[in-house]
Amino acid sequence: MRIVVADCSVNYAGRLSAHLPRAKRVLMLKNDGSILVHSDGGSYKPLNWMSPPCSHTDLELTDDQVAAGIVEAWQVTQKKTADQLVVSIFEVFHDYAQDLGIDPGLVKDGVEAHLQELLAEQIDLVGDGHTLVRREYMTAIGPVDILARDASGTAIAIEIKRRGEIDGVEQLTRYLELMNRDPLLAPVTGVFAAQEIKPQARTLAEDRGIRCLVLDYDAMRGMEDKNTLF
Q1: In a 10 Å sphere around its CB, with 0-12 CB exposed, 13-18 middle and 19+ buried, how is residue 16 labelled?
Q2: Most exposed: 10, 22, 119, 157, by fewest CB within 10 Å?
């Protein structure tokens, strides 16, 4: 893991184009090839990123770039899509690298982990004709609880909580934004599943096109089926 705090601008080119004007930002470069660009706001969501597999190249500066005050330029290229993210650095304030080793992954509490296991076994609760792809589908920013496909083959990312609140919807939104950049998965829709979903979380989820699934833990363990999909 390499963390760089720098005065920089960022340009993204590919299926969409985006520009971040010059400002102080945190650049996170991971060992899997991904890069995330963060500001001092907006919670955990990066301003821009490139998911793996990627290649990283230090560009040779042009005379115009040098005259503009740029001291480094990085080009990160997505190997599957050829999308490119170019970071132009004007000043580096901090540059630190640390080998984090192998991460054991997210350890969920008993009830939430069991809900995930049960829903994977009863994936038809999400909808008729749905099939399980896998549990703990890994993305560059963490594992999605369940990846499934509906009867038409459309990918569905399912995030499971005991209590569904706004931060859980934001987490799923972040996964969906990243997964929909992958041409092998897109389009990906979302399902927010929980034993209880707060009204504000439901409103936010529905506004973002995410379905809400209320889970009855006892029913899923063999009692009367009370699961309700809205």
Answers
A1: exposed
A2: 22
